[in-house]
Structure formats: C-alpha cells, structure tokens
Amino acid sequence: xxxxxxxxxxxxxxxxxxxxxxxxxxxxxxxxxxxxxxxxxxxxxxxxxxxxxxxxxxxxxxxxxxxxxxxxxxxxxxxxxxxxxxxxxxxxxxxxxxxxxxxxxxxxxxxxxxxxxxxxxxxxxxxxxxxxxxxxxxxxxxxxxxxxxxxxxxxxxxxxxxxxxxxxxxxxxxxxxxxxxxxxxxxxxxxxxxxxxxxxxx
Length: 202
Ligand SMILES: Cc1cc2nc3c(=O)[nH]c(=O)nc-3n(C[C@H](O)[C@H](O)[C@H](O)COP(=O)(O)O)c2cc1C
What we know:
The protein is α+β, with helices and mostly antiparallel strands. The protein has a domain at 4-81 and 129-186: 3-Layer(aba) Sandwich (NADH Oxidase). The chain contains nine helices and four strands, in the order H-H-E-H-E-H-H-H-H-H-E-H-E. The chain has helices at 4-10, 24-35, 54-63, 83-96, 99-103, 105-110, 114-120, 125-145, 160-167, and strands at residues 46-51, 75-82, 151-152, 173-182. The chain has a four-stranded antiparallel beta sheet, sandwiched between helices. Bound molecules: flavin mononucleotide.
C-alpha cells in the first residue's frame, strides 16, 4: 500500500492499457474512495456510470473528440454531477451542519435554484462549483487506483451533451469527465511542473 505522498508522486496520466480485465472488487474500492470525498454542504452530487462495452467505449471516444485511447481501457468511468441531487443534498447537508448551515442559509437558497445552476454550467460560479465537488471524488479514485496497480487518465476534453445523448440522460446529469482505467502498458516519465516559487502569489 502506498503512502499518500508516494501515490501523489507516482501518479501519471496513463493512456496505454493492458487488455487484462479489472477485478470488480477493485472498481468497487475506487467507488468507495469517491464516496468519501468532501463536498459543499456534504451534498455528494457525484454519480458514476461504469462502461465496459466496446461499442459504448467507442462512442465515448468519439464524443471525446476522437481520443481513441479511451477504447483501450477495460473500464471507463463516466463521472457526472446530479444537479437535483446537489440541490436536495445541499439542503439536508446544510441542516446537518447546524450553525454553519444556518449562517449559510442565504447561500443555500441560491443553490436550490436549478435554472440558475443550469444557466451557469460551463460558464462560472454555481455550475462549476458542482463540477468541483465531482472533481475531488474523481481524484480520490485516481489516487486510490495506484494501490491496485491501476492507471487512469482524466478526460475532460469532451462534448458533454453528446455523452448525455449516448445514455439518454436529460440535463439533470452533467458529465464532468471520463476516467479510463486499466493496468498500465506504459510508464511515462514525470511531466514537468511549475517550480514552487512560480505558483506562489506574493
Ligand atoms: C481536468 C483535466 C482534464 C484533462 N483532460 C484530458 C483529456 O481530455 N485528454 C487527455 O489525454 N488528458 C487529459 N488530462 C490529463 C493531462 O493532460 C495531464 O494531467 C497533464 O498533462 C499532466 O500529466 P500527468 O497527469 O501525467 O502528471 C486532463 C487532466 C485534467 C486534470
């Protein structure tokens, strides 16, 4: 089992996968890691669709602007936000927060406004706030995957509405990213990062 530090340092975006199937228990463990992510008002708006069917993976790759490596992954996790789930979850979650929830009541009222959320998705503010919650859950899976020797790659360059069409989902589901998962068939060098002083605002 890796330490968190080791997982963070070892992780790479993996775009080549072995054909070996992934044991179901591993996928379940990844979903447990996602479940434990923090979220605003504990709303837990993340929803996941597991895709293994070659035909569906091919359609996903097309909807991801022909990123064909996606089709090679034994499992592709479609990582979504449930907008109504966020509204409902943030209302009850805010109550659980007691005093903090009460202080934030004005804010909570705005996040119950679905029209406003849909209007701002893909632009700013409320919509992206929901997506940020899902992103944290995705990264939990990405790091936990390393414990099983699995590689993943965030895929956010997607035509979101095309993916919804593939599954017949309405606009209550917002697709945040695809996460192809598989045993790595490559071991890329660490990709360059900005130096510490370059990411500080003084
Ligand atoms: C939000 C997000 C979106 C990304 N979208 C894509 C994508 O659509 N296709 C892809 O091949 N890689 C994608 N990546 C992976 C990045 O290219 C990669 O993280 C970056 O180049 C650094 O490499 P590393 O992850 O190996 O450290 C994405 C990463 C993030 C975090």
